[in-house]
Amino acid sequence: MSVTIRQARVRDVAGIHHLVMEGTKHGKILRRSTRDIKKIIRHFWVAEEDGNLIACCALEIYNKKLAEIRSLVVSPAAQKKGVATGLLNHCLSLARKKRIYEVLAITDRENLFKRLGFSEQLHGQKSLFVRP
Predict the structure, then answer these.
(1) CATH architecture of the domain formed by 3-130
(2) How many helices (H) and strands (E) does the chain have?
(3) Does residue 130 register a pLDDT over 80?
(4) Residue 57 and residue 47: Cα distance in Å, rounded?
(5) 38-73 residue pLDDT tens
(6) What span, in angstroms and rounded, lies between the C-alpha atoms of 31 and 25?
(7) I want to staple 55 with a disulfide (CB 3.0 to 4.6 A). Which of 17, 39, 47, 108 is the partner?
């Protein structure tokens, strides 16, 4: 599988929206409208294979102290192949370059995030942070 990770473009809004809606069916992420996605498209990164979007993830940078990983979705056919890890590593690398102090993820996929250096900061809750 040859996967390319790149910054999302406006033409990707429909594909990202489709992925997000698929993710919401399983209760894994929050819904986002195409308008919401278009408004923050510069924060999205996508993984594509053979010209098809197979995953997306947003890194919303709030300030030098905090950024958040949001809307991480991998299409069912591309799951369990390291695509989510690749997107997350890309976003964390970007956060490091921008000298962001902490990256937040609110998730139920603790094992994935912990493998990448996130740790639980709010005991008993699902918020995970990493200092890139």
Answers:
(1) 3-Layer(aba) Sandwich (3.40)
(2) 4, 7
(3) no
(4) 9
(5) 999 999 999 999 999 999 999 999 999 999 999 999
(6) 9
(7) 47
Token pair, residue 120, equals 């639980």
127: which residues sit within 8 A by CB, 6+ positions away?
Answer: 104, 105, 106, 120, 121
pLDDT of residue 29: 85
Q: Which helix (H) or strand (E) holds 71?
A: strand 66-74
Q: pLDDT tier at 96 (50, 70, 90 boundaries)?
A: very high
Alpha carbon separation from 7 to 40, 43, 44, 58, 87 (Å, rounded): 12, 8, 6, 10, 11
pTM of the shown model = 0.84
Task: Give the number of other Cβ atoms within 10 Å of residue 62's Cβ.
Answer: 10
Residue reference for tokens 């890890």: 85
